[in-house]
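Ops channel
N.P.: pipeline sanity check, posting one input/output pair.
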């Protein structure tokens, strides 16, 4: 029997592909951690994928593609053709197919608009109580979730096999910037939102290719990490989003405190864990990759670390050719425990 057949996931009807992905994620951490980038192949600094090129700033600089590929579903709920960052959903499906075929891991986030005010995800006006079962906007929200579910379950290889993904909804809920965050709903409402989404996906919409990832922003304590936690029956992977907003010394201590705490909870729950988002905007520290990041995360048992999108000249998280941290990034890529695509491809 293969190890993936023994794996039990939050979704009791999870398909073979999801179990296989979970066993792969568990294998990865035995060898190191995988490197991930948001929208890696959709666009980069001064280029955009028009459907005819396959490239990534990461590959241009380092000679290999990321092992983990972050994609974002914001605005799929509105029925738009493009997400909130102008990535076409058809193209996204193709890029997911390609990354999967190459042996990469897919992680998907979702920044839905505020269902009450119709403003962005960053409008913290309360909304959760109205979209829960029994709420006035529940039917509307169910229709939103159906759109997400259809996209996710429609992810198939060219030969029709299911493509498994790490689904990471309602992230950074302990922060107060999203409508599902702290201050906009109670922990009880948040947990219901998560569980109702999970139940709808697994029992009504028949989505069975997902691993559910719970990810907070930085926390002060285990209690804070678990304040909104919906329960082990609804989660497969534990994550944290940790960005450098202040000094390098501050970030070093944020990484160590938070990732040690995360590793501890993950051990108790026997779940894999990851740095699900992070980075230093515009990577202004030359040796950031080896000296700030790797030195402080390599002993934390992570399965992966994903860096945010290369959107524009003042909003990017991985180097492009000629960028200040690119020499250090190449050294980082050569570290034996840092896994890029060619390395993760070998892990089964
Ligand atoms: C944020 C920024 C936004 C973007 C959003 C969703 O961190 O990058 O510009 O729209 O993520 O990808």
């Amino acid at each position: 029997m293969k190890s993936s057949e023994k794996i039990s996931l939050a979704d009791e009807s999870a398909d073979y592909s999801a179990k296989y992905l979970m066993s792969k994620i568990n294998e990865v951490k035995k060898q190191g951690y995988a490197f991930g980038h948001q929208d890696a192949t959709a666009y980069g600094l001064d280029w955009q994928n028009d459907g005819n090129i396959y490239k990534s700033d990461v590959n241009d600089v380092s000679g290999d593609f990321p092992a983990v590929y972050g994609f974002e579903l914001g605005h799929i709920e509105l029925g738009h053709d493009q997400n909130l960052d102008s990535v076409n959903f058809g193209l996204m499906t193709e890029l997911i197919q390609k990354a999967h075929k190459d042996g990469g891991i897919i992680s998907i986030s979702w920044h839905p608009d505020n269902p009450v005010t119709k403003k962005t995800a960053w409008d913290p006006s309360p909304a959760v109580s109205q979209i829960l079962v029994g709420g006035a906007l529940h039917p509307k929200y169910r229709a939103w979730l159906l759109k997400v579910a259809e996209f996710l379950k429609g992810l198939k290889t060219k030969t029709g096999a299911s493509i498994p993904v790490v689904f990471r909804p309602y992230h950074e809920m302990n922060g107060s910037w999203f409508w599902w965050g702290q201050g906009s709903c109670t922990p009880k409402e948040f947990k219901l939102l998560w569980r109702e989404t999970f139940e709808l996906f697994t029992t009504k919409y028949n989505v069975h290719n997902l691993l559910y990832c719970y990810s907070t922003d930085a926390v002060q304590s285990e209690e804070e990490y678990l304040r909104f936690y919906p329960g082990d029956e609804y989660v497969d992977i534990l994550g944290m989003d940790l960005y450098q907003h202040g000094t390098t010394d501050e970030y070093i201590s944020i990484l160590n405190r938070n990732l040690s705490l995360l590793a501890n909870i993950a051990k108790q729950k026997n779940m894999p864990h990851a740095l699900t988002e992070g980075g230093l905007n515009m990577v202004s520290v030359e040796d950031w990759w080896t000296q700030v990041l790797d030195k402080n995360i390599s002993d934390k048992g992570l399965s992966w670390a994903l860096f945010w999108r290369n959107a524009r000249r003042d909003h990017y998280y991985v180097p492009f050719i000629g960028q200040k941290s690119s020499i250090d990034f190449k050294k980082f890529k050569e570290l034996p425990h840092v896994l890029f695509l060619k390395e993760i491809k070998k892990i089964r």
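N.P.: looks fine end to end. Residues 72, 74, 84-85, 111, 308-309, 311 surround beta-D-mannopyranose (CB under 6 Å).
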